Amino acid sequence: MKKLIVILFIAVSISASAQDRYTEGMSKAMQLWGEQKITEASNLFERIAMAEPDNWLPYYYASLVNTTASFGERDEAKLTQQLEKAKEFVDVAKNISPENPEILILEAMINTAWIAYDGETYGMTLSGKNTKLYNEAMQLAPNNPRVIFSKAEWDMGSARYFGKDTTPYCEDVQRALELFDATESKEVPFYPNWGEDRAKQVLAQCQS
Amino acid sequence: MKFFVLVLFLAIIWTSSAQQTISGNVVDTSGNPIVGANVYLEGTYDGSSTDEAGNFSFQTAETGTQTLVISMMAFEPHYEIGEVSYLKNLKIKLIEAVNQLGGVTLSAGTFEAGDNSKVSVLKPLDIVTTAGAAGDFVAALQTLPGTTTVNEDGRLFVRGGSAEETQVFIDGLRVFQPFNATTNNVPTRGRFSPFLFKGITFSTGGYSAEYGQALSSVLLLNTTDVPDEEKTDISVMSVGGGVGHTKIWDKTSLSINASYINLSPYEALIPSTQGMEWNDPYESISGESVFRVKGNRSMFKFYTGFNHATLDIAQEDINFEDLVRFRLKNRNLYFNTSYKHFFENNWSIFSGVSMANDVNEIAIMEDTVDTEEINSHIKIAAKKGFSNRFELNTGVELFSTNYEETYQDSDGFTFNGSYDDVLVAGFLEGDIFFSQKFALKLGARAEHSNVLNRFSISPRLSLAYKSGENGQFSLAYGDFYQKPLTESIKFDQSLDLEKTSHYILNYQYLDNGKTFRAEAYYKDYDDLVKFDTQLPEFNSEYSNLGKGYATGIDVFWRDNKSIGNLDYWASYSYLNTKRDYRNFTEAATPNFAPQHNFSVVTKYWVEKLRSQIGVSYSFSSGRPYNNPNTQDFMGEKTKSYNNLSFNMAYLIDQQKILYFSVSNVLSFNNVSNYQYANVPDNTGFYDRRAITPPADSFFFVGFFWTISTNKTSNQLDNL
Prior knowledge:
By secondary structure, chain A is an all-alpha fold. Chain A has 9 helices and no strands.
C-alpha cells in the first residue's frame, strides 16, 4: 500500500511539475510579449512548442506574436521574415488541431498583414483566401466572438473601400462583444481571449 | 522504502538547486553576430535569445548529456551535443540555408509572373490589365524585352526568331495550337483565358533541359491548384459574351467557362476598311473546363479546351484586280491531364498526357485546303531533393504527330500530303546550390525523331552568382533543336533538325518594388531549312543549308513604389540579326526583326474614382522588306511603328466592373510590310501595296459581373 502511495505521489508530482512548468513558461512568454520583447517572446513560445509537440497553443502564440508585430512594419526583409515564420507555426498548429476556428482566423490575419503592407500586390490574391477562411471559421464556430468580430472587421474594410454602408457589420461587432464575456472558455489555460478591446474601439467608431 | 523516498526527494532538490549556466556566442560565416537566434536545450523550456552582440547565456537544471539547439530563420539549424557542464563559452557559426528567402535564383533568360516567386517581374493581374493587351496574355508578354512587335501577327517573336520557334506548355505538357486560327494580317490571340493560371514563366532563351523542340523560347503556364471560392462570372462585351462557373467540393473542384465571340456588330458600327472587307467577320464558340482533385500528397488535373471558329474575308492583293477571298473554318479540341504525387522521402513523380485535334477547312479563292492534325505528348518525370542544396530532375517524353492534308485547285488538281512522326526524348538535370550566393543548373536532353531518323543531344548550363544584397549575375548556355515545320516536312522527310545555340549574360537588381534587368545574348542558328520556291511546294528543292545569328541587349525596368498609386515598367531591346533561310537569296534581316523595340506600360489607380487607368506606348524601328526594283535583297525599311493605347477599369461595386479600352489612340498609320507584284509592269517597274492593319484603332467595352457567395470578389483579375 505504501509503495502504491509513493508511486502515486511521484506520478502526481511529476505531472504537477510538468503542468507548472508549462504554466510558468507560457506566463513568462506572455509577460515578454506584454513588454514588447517580440523576439524573446516568440523564441520562448517556440521552445515550449518544441517541448510540447501535441499542444497547438504554443505554436499558435508563436505565430500570433510574429503576426501582430508585422502590422505597421515597413521594412520588407523584417516583415517577410516575421510573416514567413508566423505561417510556418500556424501550419504546424493546424496539423495538430485541424478545423480549429482560432487557427483559421490567425491564418487570415497573416494574409491581412501582407495586404496591409502591399495591397496592390497581395490584395487580389489573398482577399479571396481570407473570405474563404472566415466563412469556414464561421461555419465551425458561429458563436465565437473572435470569429464574428474578425469577419465583421474584414467585411467593413471592403465595404468602406467601395463606399458602402458599414452599419450592418456594426451589429455583428455588437454581438461579438456580448459573446466575449458570456462564452469564453476558461477551461483550457491560455485559450485565446484577445479581441474585446479592439472590438470596443471599432464599435465606438461605429457609433461616432 | 522511506529511505528511497527521501533519496528521491533529495535528488530533486539537489538537481533543482544545481543550476548550470550555458553560454556562448553566435555568428554567421562572415563573423557578424546573429541577433535574435533561439538557443535552447532540446525537449526543455530552458533557453534564451541571442543579444545585439550575438551572445547568449541561460541557466538550466538539466544534467547529463543534452542537445543544444541554435535556430534562426534563413540559417541551417545547429546542434551541440554534450555534457551540460561543458556547454559554456561556445563559439557557434551558423551556415546560411540555401533556397531560402533572399537566396540566389537560376533566372537567366526567364521572366516569371506569379504570386510568390522571387523572380516575378509581372503579377498575374498585370498580364490582364495592360492597356492594348485587351485581356490577351500573349499581348501583355509582348511588352517585355526580347520580344519584337509584329502587330499584324499577334504571336510571340523572340530575339530574332520566328513565331514558330516559341513553344507553349500547360502544366509541363505541350500545347500544339496555342493560338486561334487566323489568316494573314488579322492578328491572332492566345486560346486560353488567363485566370485559369496561377503562374506564367516566359523564357527568352537558355531554358531547362526539361523543354525541347523550341529554337528560341518557351512559355510555361501552370493552372491553379485549388480555386479560392465558388462563383459565377458573366461578361457582356462589345465583341461577344461569356459565362463561367466554379464549384468546389472539399478537395475537388471544377471550373467551366464558355464564350461566344462575334465581330459583326462591331464591324457594322466601326467597319475595318483598310485593304480588306469582311464577308463574314470572325465568329467563334469556345469552352474550357478544369477539374482538379487535391489529395494530401497528390494533385490531379484535367483540362479540356474546345474552340470552333469561322471567318470569311476578302483582302487586297497586288497581283489581282479584285479582292482575294479567304474562308476558314477551324475546330480545335485539346486535353491535358496530369497527376503528381509527393512521396515522404522528397521524391515526386509527375505523369501526364496532352492531346490535340485540329481541323482546318480553308478556301482561298477557288482552291481548297483541308487539314487535320492529331498530336499527343506523354511525359513521365521524377524529381528528388537530396538536400536543400541538390535537386535532380529527370524524365522521358514521347511526342507523336499525325498530319494529313488535301489540296484541291479549281481545275480539279488534287494533292494529298501527310506525315507521321514519333519523337522520343529524355532529360536529366541537376540544380546545385553551392551556397546562398552561388548556384548551378546542369543538364542534358536527348531526342530521336522517327520520321527524320535523327538523334540529337543538347547540353544545357546555367550559373548564377549573387553579387550583393539585391543584385545577381547569371550565365546560361544551351543547344536547342527543332524539327522542320510541317510546311516543309510534309513534302520532304529527308531533312535534318534545325539548331540554335544560346549564350546569355544577365544582371538583375531587385529592391523593394524596383526591378532592373539587363541581358546580353548571342544566338547561333544552324541547319535552317531552305527551299527554292517562293513558298514550300511539293516539287521544291529542300536543304538544311540555312544559317544565321542574332545578338542583342534587353533591358527592363519596373517601379511600383516610388510614386504613390503608380506602377510602370519600361522595356528596351536592341536586336541585330541576319539569317539565310527559306527562300532567302542571301543572309538578311527578316521582316519580323526590327532593330529597336521600346515599350512603356503605366497603370495608375485613382482611389476617388475606384478606377485603374492604364496607358501603354510601344515603338519599334522600321521593319526590313525586299524591294525587287533595287539590287539589295531585303535592303529597305518601313517607317517606324508607334502605338499609344489607353484603358480604364471602373469598379461599380464589389461585383461589377466596367472596362473600356482603345488601341492606337493617335491613329498612327503603321505599315508592317510591302507586297510587290510578281511581274513588273510594262515600264519594268514592280508595283507595290502597303500592308497595314485592317483598322488603325480598336475599341473595346465590356461589363463584367461576378456572383459569389461572399459578395467581395470581382473579375478585375480576369480582364
